[in-house]
Amino acid sequence: MSYIGITVLGICFIFLMTTLGASVVFLFKNNVSDKINSLFLGFASGLMIAASVWSLIIPSIEQSESWGKLSFIPAFVGIVLGALFLILLDKIVIKILNKNKKNPYKKGLSKPLKLFIAVTLHNIPEGLAVGLAFGNAFIMGEYTAFYSALWLAIGIGIQNFPEGAALSLPLKEECNSKKKGFLYGFLSGAVEPIMAILGIFISTFLSNIMAWLLAFSAGAMLFVVAEELLPEAKFKSGSVISTLGFILGFVFMMILDVAL
Questions:
Q1: Is the pLDDT of residue 152 over 70?
Q2: Which of 7, 234, 250, 258 lies at a C-alpha separation of 20 to 30 Å from 47?
Q3: Residue 232 to residues 34, 92, 157, 159, 179: CA-CA distances in angstroms?
Q4: What is the DSSP code string of 18-84?
Q5: Contact at 8 Å (CB) between 121 and 224?
Q6: pTM of the model
Q7: What is the dihedral of CA 85, 95, 106, 119, to 10 degrees?
Q8: Contact criterion met (CB below 8 Å) for 157 and 17
Q9: Sorting pLDDT into bands at 50, 70 and 90, what band is 237?
């Protein structure tokens, strides 16, 4: 397969898996129980944490080996900036919504909208991370680099499946519509191929700061898990099921990252 073919496959895969995950909403005739919803959220959280560590943070540190004992600095700064970026963006969105006094969210974002925004925002660095990986592969010009980027895309794509389901299922209940639940899940994943393409061009011109950008992506993902997904998972069931889902998701993604 050509370099371009591998790249197109990887970018399409991450979007396809989010869409497939969102389509799970059509398989449920009745409302999803809080425990199942909590399990989905916990599982997606575990996947995202593992992906952040093995696919983003560790590569970021490895690419900073020339820093010696200070090789952690790009990862540290990138993670902090990634988290701060989402905090700032969330505040900007709320401020824009609150400008209109008649806006229904003037007292704050509803949980479904906040979850949708959070997942969509976290898909931005995910897509960017895939694009950066493929951009770096183009710079290196080696098949091994392209297949490494493809495995990263596959890993992120696999965790996108339960994530898409974890978003569409609760929104289906809130909106009382399977189609709307699916649409929100579909739209949340649409940013990934766009950001992946942008990431390819960014890496071509800014390859020297790849370590910082990977860590930035990791910081954004870690923030979403800690701020949105895990608290929502605990709120849904109030039991240990979300924790079990988190552990299963983390181990599953760890195995994929290490083995593949």
A1: yes
A2: 7
A3: 10, 22, 22, 18, 22
A4: HHHHHHGGGG-SSPPPHHHHHHHHHHHHHHHHHHIIIIIIHHHHHTTGGGGGGTTHHHHHHHHHHHH
A5: yes
A6: 0.66
A7: -20
A8: yes
A9: low
